Amino acid sequence: MKKYILSxxxxxxxxTKSDACAWSDPDYEYFNLFTxxxxxxxxxxxxxxxxxxxxxxxxxxxxxxxxxxxxxxxFFNNQLNYAETENLVYKISMDDLNALKNGRPSNPLLQKLGxxxxxxxxxxxxxxxxxxxxxxxxxxxxxxxKDSFYxxxxxxxxxxxxxxxxxTVNALTSLYNATRxxxxxxxxxxxxVRFNHYTRNYDAALEAxxxxxxxxxxxxxVYFMALDQLAGAQRGKEMNADANWNFFQVFMNSKDRxxxxxxxxxxxxxxxxxxxxxxxxxxxxKNMAYFLLGYEGFSNPIPIMEKMYDINPDSEILxxxxxxxxxxxxxxxxxxxxxxxxxxxxxxxxxxxxxxxxKDTGSADSKTTTTEVKKEEKLSFWQKIVRFFKNxxxxxxxxxxxxxxxxxxxxxxxxxxxxxxxYTESGYGYDDKTKDYLDDLEKFTEKTKKVxxxxxxxIADAYLKFLKKDYEASAEILDEIKTTNPEYLEEIKRxxxxxxxxxxxxxxxEYEDHLMKNYSDxxxxxxxxxxxxxxENYDYYGEAPSTADFLKDVLANRYFLQGExxxxxxxxxxxxxxxxxxxxxxxxxxxxxxxxxxKTQFEQQIIAKNMDSVGNIxxxxxMIYGDRAMRxxxxxxxxxxxxxxxxxxxxxxxxxxxxxxxxxxxxxxxAAGEYNGFKDISNLVFGxxxxxSFGSAETESMEAEDYSAFPFIKASMNKLExxxxxxxxxxISAGADEKAAKASxxxxxxxxxxxxxxxxxxxxxxxxxxxxxxxxxxxxxDRKNPYKYYYKNFLYTTYIEPDNFDLAINYYQKTLKLSxxxxxxxxxxxxxxxxxxxxxxxxxxxxxxxxxxxxxxxxEKEKAHQTELDNIRNEKYRTYFAQLKSxxxxxxxxxxxxxxxxxxxxxxxx
Length: 910
Fold this sequence. Notes:
Residues 350-371, 397-417 are annotated as: Disordered. The chain is mainly α.
């Protein structure tokens, strides 16, 4: 097997949310319980930690202050609020302002301000009129270089070169000289610097800054707006060190321009932040330079934070560095999924449409003529990607014990030293280095909170202790915090809830009452209508993980460890989800909860609400139990359940349709004659396949046997009628004649055809057709339940209890013994050989190679392991092939198989 060499483009899929079609978003893969945005200075919001975008963008309605608007608001003596000022400066048209100037305002806001407003702020309004005239032209003209990758640059109808250069400069200079207010005067100077920058008159831009900006001894918002333009012109002249330093000054002294200034620094100088550190003179400059170095760094940020602490422990940017570090720890400690089932490589398989055991014949739709196939590669490319990253970063450790879960849970629940909230030994990004990082950050936070006046550090310290599972210490710190900051108060409230619930080792009825009394808001979800028709802003990822989601996961884990699997399942899933992985122990636990009398209020309102509509709930459970009995060949037991399932409304499936009004979701309606999980089963289920093509119609893939001796086998049956037929066949098979031989063959056919290898593999696993799902998985576990910590990832992992191929083989054995028809015996031997292959696949799944992907001899070891498996298969799982070859080579059945079955032909040539 060849190793996969992953390109950076492929790797980027795992870390980048580039558009709505990206397959994952790293910022949705943890719970974000410690809100990064509680920092007081919102101008640093873009620099919070994100792995999805270049800058953090989840401001949740918070706005980064616009320096320009705040400056204008002050200019107008706060006569306008922020929104009105923004409207006046950015939205109201030049014509509206001219109408105000002429004493005839028509805009509602300007009418409200009155005609006297212009006289009072004449120079400011005149400036805004000029600025609104210039604004459509204020972009730099694109000049294609000889090294341009694309043939054409950005298309724009107008840019700064679209207006007369001399006329514009003269007008701005004249207005500058005529203006008396220094702030407005400086604004005209800013327009001169910007206009020269955008027309690529870089020397003139530098001169304009020196002539029109510097003489006005004001270093406020307008100064740094002009400095930003000066730095751009300097970069155009390749004065990169000076440009970089000036962009750094803009970054330090502006609120809304930090993001653009940061990008400009990166573009100006490849060694930007190191060079800035060399020029930093004041403590503030050094502190900011350290911040930028730490922000860009890929190593432990705490040493740089120590340097920042030495300069100013109350620095707001030190809090930004700390919250980024906390967020990084959260991603390791609090992933939204723990893929810890015994077959974690099956993650994401439900969405596939792969017939894994049909590898040598192409796709499921290809009309190949083989009944027995070779299973060489069981992992899809994306499964290999998942495995690669698990090997690279440290994947889940498989629990090899098969002991009683209730006994295990006591130790895990009370004494496990690993991460929260789940008592687990898996290693999703968590290792000794991560623990050391947490310890170091905690020490730094404890030190800082003693000298800083900001309660932020106390909150951070309490949260780090929460991550370390020291809930008592965390709660004590929270109780001592005195603050009026609403964001801090909200975070403290949330953390108190977290400490209470996560620290509680056992969830009993009394504690459930406590949850409903004190924290019901976290568990009763408020419905929010989404505008799914607005595809531009439509969130394809759904809602981001919330505190409520986290708490539900914690409770699901506790219930699981307490042996209350049904409650654990229903914390994260609906009853109808059982159809996808209907394993018996879980189904029984869910049913026990369903039938539990005297449920607590929490159980009724939070858990039982997920007993969603599946039609008749009793029939739904009876159907699952009946199906399981059928797979165990206990036809009488199956009948008793199917008798209770006659009210079954059909396997609950959902249709999704996009309309002009958004996504339309409707329940699937089964057509007449369509299999719905209970009715309309063809008698071909007793037949044999003429070629292996799961995508073809049953009349093309399957061929009926001679049913003339068994008139009770109807052309179309429901499951109750099917069990009646099987019970009669079973009685007949107890005889010792040819009819008994034929009855045994028909039962064997049904058991094989409804196994993971058969065309009707969907019949007894709650599925509607033979594609998708785990029907063809060969699990490598002997445990009754492969889940370890909870059932949140239930729909992303497949588990259906293994087939017992010996059941079919035993019935075929009787046919072989009683039948005098050599052709019939040859056909039965081939069916037995096919069932024996199923036994081999199960053996192979339990004996997968455990070779590290980084092993330099990976390919050789993988090949040796496959050779060993091939030898075992040929020695122990070719019994009936060998018998067929040695004793039935002269039969027509043998000749037909050797010509039509590709794998059988391969075996015969050996």
